[in-house]
Amino acid sequence: MLRIELLVGLDDAYGRAVARGVIRWAKSRGDWKLYGYGRLLSDPAEDSSARAADGIIARIESAEDARAFASSPTPVVDVAGAFPGAGFLEANDDDFLAGRRAGEYLRGLGFRAFAFCGAERVEWSQLRRRGFAEAAGMQASRLPSFERPLEWWRDRRRDEADLAAWLRSLPFPTALFAANDVAGLKASETCRRSGVAVPDELAVLGVDDEDLLCELAEPSLSSVRLDCEGIGMAAAALLDEKLRGGAVASRTVLVAPREVVERDSTRIVVGSDRLVAQALSWIRANAHRGAGVEELVAALPACRRTVESRFKAGMGRTLSQALADARLDRAKRLLSSTDLPLDSVAEAAGFGSLQRFHIAFKDREGMSPGRWRKGVREENRRR
User: Fold this and answer.
1) Contact 146, 169 (CB under 8 A)
2) Which of 266, 294, 326 corresponds to the end of one domain?
3) Which domain holds residue 341?
4) Helix (H, G, I), strand (E, B), or coil: what is residue 255?
5) pLDDT tens for residues 137-172?
6) What is the DSSP letter of 207?
7) How many domains would you assign to the chain?
8) Half-sphere exposure of residue 217, counting CA atoms within 13 Å on the CB side?
């Protein structure tokens, strides 16, 4: 029987879901004995009994924790991703992809101005920032950003004057991506106190989908949902492989994020033209069905010429281009986050046939879908 210390904390949705994944995996094996309830879960580095374990799954979020676990001969799998160079085995969210997914979603709402807030000197926050900038069509160095230590975001008593001034300095409307829900909630609350309207002037999107906190916020906070249970299962499988003496294929396993959970903080389509807003909303809801321009126009209260001219004036692209963009964005999400075969991706994204999918994808990306997927995965392994 293998003794495994589970030191992930249960004070937020991330820790609880990761723990569920580890427990689920352990029950499927039958030869793991899990420890770590009570105090151990919230303060792993201080508990010397963890050193008697056969293996440890820990959420290492501070330099002190990293130093403590680095000195241990016991195999450790980290599920936080804050210190990627510390030498631990890691099972983490694909943070770059989470940021890219956020950017694709906000861009699809019609935003042309973007900003970021998150944790400084923390790798997962920086990866989310870079992925977001890429999807927004910007260099990360040119993305307006506000960063503070993780503890600053968690402490609601900290002075928010600098954050308020920065938020007011942004051009409205702007889409703000927060590296996690804690930062998103603090930014949204600061907007409310500072007279910045959410989402009309500033749409706010977080990460983690802390459902209770997100729903109780005013307005409720949209968030990128992570596959935290999948992270827990991946961490357990990686540790088990190490303990049984097998060759570990990769020291880092990245788990793709799930969907954007839309709430009031992003329920807006940018632009003063209500007809354009209706068209964008319809495209977001129906493009994956393979719907065309005729079906779109039939759902709107205006003739085709009017819809097309006003949409082109407001969005800088045609209805056909917008439908194609929505289908391609969905296809890219499926290629990067699932193992679906290409014909299934083509069908799920609304292309109708694999041939049409290949042609449209190569026109946009300059390469085949299969080659693009391979490149994304190789890039993820390098990160």
Assistant:
1) no
2) 266
3) 274-382
4) strand
5) 999 999 999 999 988 998 877 778 999 999 999 999
6) E
7) 3
8) 31
